[in-house]
Amino acid sequence: MDNVEQRAKDLLAQMTLAEKIGQTVQYGRCEERELKLVAEGKIGSLLNVHGPKKINELQRLAVEETRLGIPLLIGDDVIHGFRTIFPIPLGEAASWDLEGMERNARIAAEEAAAEGIRWTFAPMVDVTRDPRWGRIAESTGEDAYLSSLAAAAKVRGFQSPNGDGNPTVAACVKHFAGYGWIEGGRDYDTTDMSERTLRETVLPPFEHGIRAGALSVMSAFSELNGVPASGSRYLLRDILKREWGFDGMVVSDWESIEELIYHGYAEDRKDSARKGLNAGVDMDMHSGVYLDHLDALVQDNPELLQLLDDAVLRILRVKFRLGLFENPYVSDEDEEAGLKGRAIPAAHLAQARDSARKSIVLLQNRSGILPLDTGKHRKLALIGPLADDRHNSMGCWAWKGRDEDVVTVRDAFQSEIAPKAEVFYEQGSGILEELDGGVERAVQLAKQCDVAVVVVGESEAMTGEHYNVTSITLPPCQERLIRELKRQTGTPVIAVLMNGRPLATPWLHEHADAVVEAWHLGTATGLALVDVLTGKYNPSGRLPVTVPRATGQIPMYYNRKNTGRPHLYEDYIDCDDSPLYPFGYGLSYTTFEYTDLQLDRHQIGLDESVRVSVSITNTGSRAGEETAQLYIRDLVASSTRPVKELKGFSKVRLQPGESREVHFTLGREEMGLLDERLEFTVEPGKFHVWVGPHSEEGLQAELEVVE
Questions:
Q1: Separation of alpha carbons 95 and 282, rounded Å
Q2: Within 13 Å, how many C-alpha atoms sit on residue 156's CB side?
Q3: First-residue to last-residue Cα distance in the chain
C-alpha cells in the first residue's frame, strides 16, 4: 500500500459521518451560506472561485477552522487555456500535434495553479459526429483513435509535475459517457447506441485518458440507453471502476444528480442522492442533494456507508496526490498573482502562436493565390465581422482570457504586413446582421485593392454548451458579403473561416480564390493567421472532422460501414453525397508525393505484427510538413467493419526535393476487433492497408492474417 493510500485510509477512519458527507459536496458559488458550510467541514470542493486571496481565505477556513483540517479542492473549467488562450480543442486536433497539445495543457495548468485552481474539468473526450452540437468545439472530432491519443496527451500535460513533484492540476476526462451522441445535436438530450458503438467508438478516449493517469472523471448530463449517465451503475461502477480499475474520483456534471428527477429516473431529491451514490458518483456538483440527504439515507440504509466510504477515499486520494495537505495555499502577495495584472510570459505567447498556426487548415487555394505576395499585392483589403474582433477570436470556454491580450487579424496585418504593403479595413457585416451600407463600402474598398481577405464565421456564443444549430452554414449576412465581393469586383477573395464547428460552405469552395479554416485560435489569432497567409509558416493543419456539403448529410464521417448495396451508396437525389472536405484533409504551399508503400510481410499470425513503410517526397518549392495517415480495412469479419479506420499517423517536415521513409507498425491492438460477443480478438482474414494524405487518398497494399 503506497503512502497516499495509507494516509487516505487513516484519515477516513477518523471522520464522522457528517465530515464524510462534506467531502462529497461541491458548490459552484461562494456566498455567505457556502462560507459557513466550509467552516463547518460540510464542503469538500468549490468551483467558480477566483483570485488567490479569495482561494487562500477559503483554504484557511477549511484547514484551520475545521476539526480535521482537510483542504478544499478548487476546480474550474480550464478548457483550452487560462490566461493564455490556445485554439479551441477542435482546432488543436487539426494540428495532429500531440506534443503541442500536451504543452498547451501544461501551460494552462501552470497558470491556473498559480491562482490556486488545482482541478480542471478537462479534457472533454466525447467523440461526436454531429456538428450541429455546440460542444463539438470542445471535442477533438469524429475519430476514436485521434481522440484517444489527444486525451492522453492532455491528461499528461495538465498533470505534469509541479515544483513539489505533484500533478500541477488534476485532469478530469468528461463526459462519461455518450454525451457526444445526443439526438439532433441538442445539448442534454437522449443518447441511444449499441453496446458495440459504445465499446468501439465512445469509450476508447476515456480509457486512454485514464491509462494516462487522469485523477478524475465527470459523469454526463445525458442518458444512455434508457439510464441517465449520472445514475448508471453499469457505466460508473461496472465499467469505470471495476473493469478498468479506476481509483480516482467521479464528479457529476452540474446538478446532474438532481436532474435524475427530470429524466424520470428518481422520485425526488432524496431518491436522486441515493441513486447517484449507488451508481458511483463520488462528488455532487452544486445540486446539494448529497449534503441534504446522505445522512438520512445512510442512517436508514447502513449498507450505503460502504459506498460513501469508497467515495470519500477516492476524493482524499486526489487531494493527497495533489499535495494539498502540504501546500494548500498559493502566493498572494498582491491580488495580481496568477498572471492577472501582468503580461503573459513570452514563452506562453510563443506556444500559443505556434499552436494556433499549426491548427489552421488550408482548404482551397485556387491558382496559388496564397501565400500573399506583398511585392505583387501592394494593396490589401481586410474585410469581415471577425477581422478585428478580440473577444470572439478566443472562442467558447475562454472566460479567464482577456480581450486586451488578443492580437486580432487587423492588429497583425498592421504590424506584420503594413510596413510592406498598404492595408485597408472595412467590417462589411455584423456576425448575424447586416450593417447599413456595409456591403457596399466593402465592395468599393475591394475594387481598389489587389486582394481581399474576408474573415467570417461564428461568434463564441454560437458554439459551446447549449449553443446548437439547425444549419451549419455561414449566417446569410456574411455569405451575402462574400458573394457580392465576388460578383461585383474582379479582386481575388480569400475567405478565412473562424468557427467552432465545421461549416458547410460549398459556394465558397467553388467561388472563393482561397478558403482557410482558422477555427477560434485564441490569444495569438492574428499573428498565427498572418504567419500562414504570408507563407512565413507553411500550413500543415489537417481536418479532425469530415466537412459536409449540406446540413442534411449529418451524420457524415469517414469510417462509415458499407451497405449491402455499396454501388447505390449515393442515396441523396438533391446533393452530391461526397463530403465537401474529407477527414484528414488539408493543403500546403508545397506538394508531397507518396511512393513505394511496403509491408515487410504480407502474411502474419494472429499475435504478430507487420512493419509498414512509405516514401514521401516534397515535390514543391517550399519546405513543409506532411501528416502521413495510416488506414486499414478488415474485409471480412464476424462483425462488419468500417470502410476505413485510422490506425496511425506521422508528421514529417521536408525540404524541397527531400524524401524520407515513414514507418508504422500494425499489430494485435491495431488489427483486432470486438467479436459477436464483444470480446476483443484478432481474426484471420484479408486486410487493405492505405497510407496517404487523408482518408480518401493514398497508396494501397494487402495483408493477410492467418491462424
A1: 35
A2: 15
A3: 42
